[in-house]
Amino acid sequence: MAKPAQFNAPNFSFTAAIHKIDRKKLYGHTEISVTDDKGSPCNFASLTNDGLHILSKKCIGLMTTNSEGNYLSRSDAKAVDKNGQLLELVPSIFEKPVQLEPVSNIEEYLDLNVKAIYQLEITEGRNELLEALEKDQLFHFLFNYRTDYEGDDAFLISNEKAIFMVV
Predict the structure, then answer these.
(1) Closest CA to 133 of 167, 109, 97, 98
(2) N or C: which end of the chain has fewer CB within 10 A?
(3) Inside any domain, residue 104
């Protein structure tokens, strides 16, 4: 079972493992392969800005530099807002209990730009959650799979068979 997360609603709590729903499994997928005139596979490469060098796919990396162009270790970099104030990390949903907020306006959910959908595998508290969702109650929370500086809006919904988290 995947690592569980603890969710707290106003009147009940539950624990759930989350499983990402893969679009490939739902809709299928295709792969495009590019070959030369002899049928040999072609590989992706980049051309340097001066046009003198070709770099293959595995020759490119990212690095952070300071305002003088010197290398900066990621551990030394600090995230700040547009006013220069240090940003606080938003914890992963696996680190501490998630506080569910009831939503009264369905428009909040309908305005969501969906990035991912997860199916919840609930070990405790499933019936209370299903009862609330069947009464057209919607729950919102801030989702972060990993600790980061910005969380995503997420909502809980259900159908007759399963409960889903829409991020």
Answers:
(1) 109
(2) N
(3) yes
Residue 103's domain comprises 4-29+78-166
Tokens representing 61 are 């990396």
Query: For residues 120 and 163, is the Cβ–Cβ distance under 8 A?
Result: yes
Domain annotation covers residue 162:
yes
pTM of the model: 0.71
Weakest mean pLDDT among 60-64, 125-129, 152-156: 60-64
Alpha-carbon span 154 to 165, nearest angstrom: 6
> CB–CB of 155/138 below 8 Å?
yes
First to last CA, the chain: 21
Q: Is residue 137 part of a domain?
A: yes
SS3 state of residue 19: strand
In a domain? residue 44: no
